[in-house]
C-alpha cells in the first residue's frame, strides 16, 4: 500500500495535493495544527470515496518541543512519501516584526521540516522509491521586500535540499522543492483586489496559479520514473520572477 503524509494538508495547496494523491491510490495522513474540523472532513470524504485506502488525521504543532515531535513521528505507520506544504509569513518591514515572530517563521517553514525529515529518514530509506517534497516559493530564489524572513526560510529549504539529496540519492530517496509563484490560496487573501490585479499583470501567464497547477508537479515527482530527479528547486510561477 502506498502511504504518505501531507503536512499542512488543510491549506489550499495541501488540499489539492491530498485530493490528487487520494485519487491516485495513496493512503494518507492528513496533518493539521488548528483546523481539526477541516482535516476530519477531508478524511471522511476520502474514506467514503476510496474505501480500499486508509486515511488518518494527524495533529502536530510545528512549534512543539522536540520530544513531542519525536513521539508523534515515531508512531506513524510506514510511509514512502512526505510532502511539506505548511508555511507562514508576516508581511511587513523587518524592523517592525517582533523577535518571536521571526523565530516562528523560521521554525515552521524551515527548522521543523528539517527535523522531521531527519526523524523519517530511516523508514524512507527502506522504500524502493522514497520521496520528500517541500513546497517552497519563488521568493526563496529571488527574495521579496517585506517578506525577507519568509524568503530566507524558503531559500534555506532549497539549500538544504541540494545538500541532503546527495546524501540519500543512492537509495532512490529523492528530495526536491516545488517553488510556486503567486497562488490563489487563503495566504494571499490578505491582499486587496487591486494589489492582486497588479500582481496578475506582472505574471506573463496572466493569472495566479491554481493549487492544482502545483499538485500536478507533486504528482510527477511521486512517479517511480522520477528517481533520477533530485536536489532540485522547480519553479512553477507562470514566468513571473524567474
From TrEMBL:
Transmembrane segments: none annotated. Gene3D superfamilies: NAD(P)-binding Rossmann-like Domain. GO terms for biological process: monocarboxylic acid metabolic process. It comes from the Bacteria. It holds the Pfam family adh_short. CDD domains: SDR_c. Belongs to the short-chain dehydrogenases/reductases (SDR) family. This is 3-oxoacyl-ACP reductase. It comes from Lactobacillus johnsonii.
